[in-house]
């Protein structure tokens, strides 16, 4: 075979390289294409990493999980594509924006960090006593100084107060000192932070295991449920404690479209995660991994972890 004119494979056009990469059968093939040479790396995007499950020893009530591990959704095996877990930080109190929030002691901490598992980057945060969770408004590596962290702190019994921290701040600032019931998650909308507590349930009879509604944000900084969403198209929702996000089945072929994936913090070993199919009202249960049943750690799924885009 003769040599290709004009510089060979390294001179293929950007459009052609994108077409080739887009038709690759797997993430591994797309990664190999991306790594061929400098020109191919500049012309193609690396494959997006699949979401994982953060599992660990169940905490008590509001408290973070201990002895956490990043694991695969099916089979429960540890992820092999992440760095070694930071030493001396046994508690995980957040899985936001592709970062884990880790602390050495949730009651009286001396070290509180954000850790990005793939680059092994750490960002130190001011310590906060009785911390329960941390949620980020953006990716610290791409949002510069525009991101903020929201934390939940125990305020007696099952009450919590919310605090925020911005890059450059010396300490945390109280966001809502009145307190709330157990804060389940925090969302950001048009520059404002909204949190949902465990009392934010909707009473009534619901024949389906789950329902999806489009929220409407009211002027009083609260949201109301609007129309029910029956079809998510090619997307699926990932729900657990902490971050909730949507992913496209077109970008992640291993994901089933129009579904809700649950990471349930259960105290029995009946199943690992569950998948609710919106189109059929059927709940699919992913069995608890056999290899973990005898593990003394008593691994329990706690939250979803969506790796940041490189």
Automatic annotation (TrEMBL):
Pfam families: Beta-prop_KIB1-4 (PF03478). This is KIB1-4 beta-propeller domain-containing protein. It comes from Urochloa decumbens. Residues 88-202, 212-276 form the KIB1-4 beta-propeller domain. It comes from the Eukaryota. Transmembrane segments: none annotated.
């Amino acid at each position: 075979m003769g040599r290709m004119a004009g510089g060979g494979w390294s001179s293929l056009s950007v459009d052609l390289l994108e077409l080739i990469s887009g038709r690759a059968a797997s993430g591994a093939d797309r990664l190999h294409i991306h790594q061929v040479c400098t020109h191919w790396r500049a012309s193609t995007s690396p494959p997006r990493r699949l979401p994982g499950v953060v599992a660990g020893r169940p905490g008590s009530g509001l408290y973070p999980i201990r002895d956490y591990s990043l694991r695969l959704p099916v089979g429960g095996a540890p992820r092999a594509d992440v760095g070694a877990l930071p030493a001396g930080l046994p508690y995980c109190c957040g899985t936001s924006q592709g970062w884990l929030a880790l602390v050495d002691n949730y009651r009286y901490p001396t070290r509180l960090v954000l850790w990005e598992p793939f680059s092994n980057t750490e960002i130190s945060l001011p310590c906060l006593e009785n911390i329960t969770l941390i949620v980020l408004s953006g990716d610290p590596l791409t949002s510069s100084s525009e991101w903020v962290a929201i934390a939940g702190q125990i305020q007696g019994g099952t009450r919590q107060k919310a605090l925020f921290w911005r890059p450059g701040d010396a300490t945390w600032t109280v966001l809502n000192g009145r307190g709330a019931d157990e804060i389940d998650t925090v969302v950001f909308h048009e520059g404002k932070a909204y949190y949902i507590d465990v009392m934010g349930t909707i009473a009534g009879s619901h024949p389906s295991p789950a329902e999806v509604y489009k929220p409407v944000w009211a002027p009083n900084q609260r949201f109301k449920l609007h129309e029910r969403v029956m079809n998510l198209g090619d997307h699926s929702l990932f729900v657990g404690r902490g971050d909730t996000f949507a992913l496209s089945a077109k970008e992640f072929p291993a994901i089933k479209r129009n579904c809700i994936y649950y990471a349930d913090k259960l105290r029995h070993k009946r199943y690992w995660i569950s998948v609710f199919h919106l189109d059929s009202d059927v709940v699919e249960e992913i069995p608890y991994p056999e290899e973990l049943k005898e593990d003394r750690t008593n691994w329990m799924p706690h939250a979803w972890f969506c790796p940041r885009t490189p």
